[in-house]
Write a structure and sequence with these properties.
The complex is a heterodimer of chains A (about 425) and B (about 425).
Chain A (H helix, E strand, L loop, with lengths): L4 E9 L6 H9 L6 E2 L12 E2 L8 H4 L10 H16 L13 E7 L6 H10 L1 E2 L2 E2 L1 H11 L2 H5 L4 H11 L5 E3 L6 H15 L4 E9 L3 H9 L28 E10 H6 L6 E10 L12 H14 L8 E3 L6 H15 L8 E2 L2 H4 L6 H15 L1 E2 L22 E2 L5 E6 L4 E7 L1
Parallel strand pairs in A: 4-7, 4-8, 11-12, 11-15
Antiparallel strand pairs in A: 1-9, 1-10, 2-3, 5-6, 8-9, 10-16, 13-14, 15-16
Helix pairs in contact in A: 3-7, 4-5, 8-14, 11-12
Chain B lengths: L5 E10 L2 E2 L1 H9 L5 E3 L12 E3 L23 H17 L18 E6 L7 H8 L3 E2 L2 E2 L1 H6 L17 H10 L5 E2 L7 H14 L5 E9 L3 H9 L27 E12 H6 L6 E10 L12 H14 L8 E3 L6 H15 L7 E3 L2 H4 L6 H15 L1 E2 L21 E2 L4 E7 L4 E8 L4
Parallel strand pairs in B: 4-10, 5-8, 5-9, 12-13, 12-16
Antiparallel strand pairs in B: 1-2, 1-10, 1-11, 3-4, 6-7, 9-10, 11-17, 14-15, 16-17
Helix pairs in contact in B: 2-5, 6-12, 9-10
The chains are: A alpha/beta (about 425), B alpha/beta (about 425).
Amino acid sequence: MRRRIVITGMGTVNPLGHDVESTWRALLECRSGISKTELFDASTYPTTFSAQVKGYDLSKDLGAEHKHPTAGRNCQFALGAARQAWRHAGLEGNTSLDRTRLGIYLGSGEGSLDFWNLTNCMVDAWDGDHLDTVQWAKLAVQYMDLHREVEQESNMTVAHLAAEFEARGPSFNVLTACAASTQALGEASEQIRHGDADVVVSGGAHSMIHPYGVTGFNRLTALSTRNDEVETASRPFDLTRDGFVLGEGASVLILEEYEHAMARGATIHAEIIGYGASADAFRITDQDPEGDGAATSMRAALSDAGLEPKDIDYVSAHGTGTKQNDQVETRAIKAVFGERAKQVPVSSVKSMLGHLIAAAGATELITCILAIRDQVLPPTTNLHTPDPDCDLDYVPNEPRKANVKTVMSNSFGFGGQNNTLIIR
Amino acid sequence: MADRRVGITGLGVVAPTALGAEDYWRSLLDGARAVKTVDLFDASGFDCTIGGQLDDFSARKFVPKHYRKAVKVMARDIEIAVAAAELAFRDAGIRTRASEDGEVDVDPKRLGCNIGAGLICTDLEELGQAVTTALVDGRLDLKAWGRGGMDNLTPLWLLKYLPNMLSCHVTIIHGAEGPSNCITCGDPSGILAVGESTRLIAHGRADVVVAGGAESKLNPMGLLRQGLLRRLCVSRNDHPAEACRPFDAAHDGTVIGEGGGVLILEEIERARQRGARIHAEIVGFGAAADPTALDVLKPAAGGLSIAAGKALADAGITAEQVDLLVAHGTGVPAEDRAEADAWAAALGSAVDKPAAVALAGGLGSTFAGSGGIALATAAMALNQGVVPGTVNFEKPADGVPLNLATEARQREMTYALVGSFTVGGQAGACVLKKCEA
C-alpha cells in the first residue's frame, strides 16, 4: 500500500510574523509586510522598498545557548522556523526517533554574501580597467572570513538543521528559484513515500534583500517600482501591477509518514496527497505565454492525487504581481479547470507577504493548511482594478468564509521550473 | 505497483582531461593528469596556484545554432552542464529538439532534468567594471550605484549565476518538459541528482531523465574559499601533476578543478525496445548526513557510511558482492582518513575486497561535477571489465584499507558502489549493476 504523508508541524519567520499564528492573524487582517528597505541604503535604487523580517531574534526559538553562532541571515530564519515546527509536531525531547530515518529537505537560497568585504576587496584590487587577481588574492585573505564565505553555500542551511535535530537521514537542498521550497516539500514527500525516511524537516529559507540581490532583480525589471505607495505595491492580478516585491524569511514543515505519526499520537494538520513538477522549456527570461508548463504541473499533481479539478476547493496562486506571471497563471488555471475555473477561489498572499523567493512556497503551504483548519480563505489584497486578462475569483481584499477541504498550491521558478502541491 | 527499473543509456563527461565519455575513458586508462598552473586567470597571488582546468572550452559547440547567443549569459558552470548534457544525449542516441534534423523521439512531457550545481560565483571582473563607475572616495557609493552605476551590468546579470540555470538551459535546449530539479549539496550533488532521478523513473513520473552535475571553481573566489577551508595542497605548486594524491601516504590537500558528468537515465524496457546500449543499471541509492558538520574545518564523512549502507540495502546486495568502489578521494589527509573509515564502517571486513579508484588525482576536485563523472566512470569500468588506476596513488596512507592501485587492472565485475560527501556533511551513494548484453 502507498505510504501516506502527513504534516505534523509548522513554523515560520517572515515579514508579517515570527511564528505561524501571528502571521495568520496578520494575513486575515490584510496587513502589509512591505516597507522602505532598511537593511541597506536603497534610497536611489529603482525599488526602494521590500518585505523585510524585522527584529527577529533567534534566541526566541532556540534559547540563548545555541550551536549556531555562524549562521547567516536566511539560516537563522530557517533554524527558528524549523525549531517551531519541531516543537509544534511534539518532537521536542523525542529520543526514540530513528535519526537515520530523519531527513532534511530544503529549498534554501544561497547565504547572504559578505557585501562590503567583497566589494571593498574588489575595488582595492582594481587596477585601472581590470581586476588585479594577484593583488586580490593577497587582500582577500585579510578581508574575507571563513565562516561568512562557507555559509553562503546553500547546503549549509541543511547542515545547520541536521546539527540542530541530529538528523542522519537523507539531506537535500534544492534551489529551483521561486519554486524551491514547494519542490523540496514535494520531493521530500516522495522520499517518505518510497521509504527512504519516516520524518523529513522540509521547507525553504531565503534572503536576497542585499545590495546586489536587489540589483539583480532591478536589472531584470522584475520588481515593482511603486516607491510612493510601498505598502500597497504588491498587486497580484490587478491591472496596475508592476512587478513583485522582494521579501525574505523561512518556513519549515514536519512531514511524516502517516502510520509513524499515528503511532506516536501526533496531531495531523494536513495530508499531502498530490505533487506535480514540470518545466516550461521555453526561455530563461520568460514564462511560456500559453501557461502550458504551469498547467502540466497542476495536472500532474491532480493525477498524483487521483483527483479531478472539481475536487479542488481553493488554489493558492504563485501570483507574484508581475505582468506576465499573473496572466500566464490565470490562463493555465483556465486550461486545467475548464468551466470551473471561475468558480474556484484563487488568491495570492504575496500581496501582503511579498515574494519570499525560495521560501515562498512553504510559507504559502502553511497558509493553505490554516485555511482548511479555520475554513477561511486569505485574500488577495490591493486588487481594485480588474485586469481583463485576469478574470478569476481572486478573493479580493478581504478574507472569506468558505468550505475548504482540498487545496492546491502553485510555485513557478525563474527559468521555468514549476511545482504544485495538493493537500487536504 | 513494483518500481520500474532504470538504466544508464547515455554518458556525458566534460573533464579537464577530455571531453566526451570515450575520450575520457581512454585518458583514464592512460593515467592522464590535467592539473597544472592555473592560467584562466593569474592565480600567482594564492598559496595554491594550480588546478584542473578545461582548456579552450566553450559551450558554443554544444548548442544549436539558434541558441549560441545564449551562451553569453551562461556562467562557466552552466556551459559545462550544457555541453555534458548534449554529449549524453548524443551518446544515448536520443534525439531531442536540439537534434540537427529536428526529429524528436522522446515525449517532452516524459523527459525530466535534474542537474546538481554549486554556489556559482559572480565574475568579479564583470561586477568590478560596473562597481568602479560608482565610487566616491575609493568606496562604492550605494546612492551612486542605485542612481545608475548598476545600469552598467547587463540586464540578465542575475540569471548568469542562478544555480537552477544549469537545468533550465538544458530543458530549454532539449525541450525537456518533465520534472526539473537543481540539487545544491556540494560534492554529492551529482549522485543525489541521479538518485532522485532514478526514483522519478521508478515511480513513473518520467521515462527519461537527464541527470548529473557540473561545477567550476576555476575562479579567484573558488580558490579563495577552498583556501580558507584549508583544503588545498600548497606544497606542490612546482609539481602540479603530482599534487593531488587521493589516499596516498604523501597526500597533502586537494586542488580545485572543474567539470561535469551528466547521464541519460531511461526506463529499462523503453531502452531495450529501442535497442539502446545500456551502460549499467542503477539498482541502489542512499542519502544521509553527518550532523557534526558545522565544524567545517573537520571532515564530516559519517553520512557516507549510512548512505552506502542504504544504497546496498536498496540494491539488495551484501558488502561482499561489491566488485568496484569509486571513492571520493579528495586528497585532503583528514578527509581521506574519514572517508576510509566511512567505507570501512559500511563494508565491514569486505572493505578491501572491491577494486577501488579515485579520480581527483588526475582531474582535481570537480565538486558538484564529481558525482556524475564518478558514475560514468563506474559504468564504463563495469562494461569494459577494467578498473582505471588512481593517479598519484603509490603507497596507502595510514589507516586506508581500500584496494587501490596505481595502474589499471582487468577484472570481471557485476556491482559498483559510488559515493561521496561534502563540507556540510551531506552524502550520497549509488549502486550500479553491469547490464547483461
